[in-house]
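Hello Y.,

Per our agreement to keep a running log of every chain we model this quarter, I'm adding this entry. I've kept the format consistent with earlier entries: sequence first, then predicted structure.
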Amino acid sequence: MLQKKKFSDYSRSCIVTYAIVIAAFIIISVLKTMGMLSSLLSGLLVPVCAYIVAAIALNLTVGIMGELSLGHAGFMSVGCFSGVLVAQSLADVIPFAPVRLVVAMVIGALLAGVMGIIIGVPALRLKGDYLAIVTLAFGEIIKNLMQCVYVGKDVNGLHFGMKDQMALGMDAATGKMLINGPMGTVSVTKISTFTSGFVLILITLFLVFNFMNSRTGRAVMALRDNRIAAESVGIHSTKVKLIAFLFSAMLAGAAGALYGLNYSSIGPVKFDYNTSILILVFVVLGGIGNMRGSIIAAAILTVLPEMLREFSDYRMLAYAILLIVMMLANNSKFKKNFMEKRNLKQLERKEAAARKEATEHGNA
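Predicted structure for the entry above:
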């Protein structure tokens, strides 16, 4: 009965999170249909969805696994450029845009996962902040590497180069640049939609919640809480952490593909160190390990700077003040007392249910 009650509390929390996301989607869709959303807010819908998925992915690493990663912008970059390349290359083969978007996000997630394995295998064997240092370096390497990549397409197929677009040897009449070095993606057909972003968020939440409630997820949290005790009962720390890190990287790659296919052009500098820090801010302000908080923080902090743009020089000051206020509120005594009282009430309900079950079993 106690285990059933515990599962019920967890399920209730998941359902509330799903309900918030679905309600927000319905409200925004209705407002958009009625023409009550400005062009600015309409243009931010897909980026908000991409940042929400990236924040949930990073929270899986920071909150659930207990490791600091500063390279999630790099995984988004891998997903973005590989997803754009796949979507543009398959435009004639798969004319239906939603299917092409799904293929692009899957490929972006897989390639980001490969990068996650390459980074995670050596870094996760170490203790301390080595993962943060390695992922930070990875993000900068990917950014600088993509500034040297040139990809074009003509009747003969794809052409790759690391020098300049003139060295690709494309047919001048039919050739088209897809990735143009420092300029990034060019002439991209935008196929990302708010609906696809909403579906990706739901899929991400479903996968993350099920992972957290799985045997592997519980092993990851056990390692986070007490590594020595977890390893003493046979949990392979490197293997378990690698699975979680791989999962996190793949979700970030899918978010990058969604983000990249929302713009006609996007440069590698978009996915720099500042973007990784921004995603980390979403996680910290929303609450480490709190997926619902990451969703709310990512949505608010993505929209807010654009809403304050009319205040020109003062908008970033207001943004910084809000960050400080949210940080103080998130760590205030009022919130801690509220959480302690809520946890105490939940514990009392569980104990009452256990006593009731014991009484009924004794009478039987």
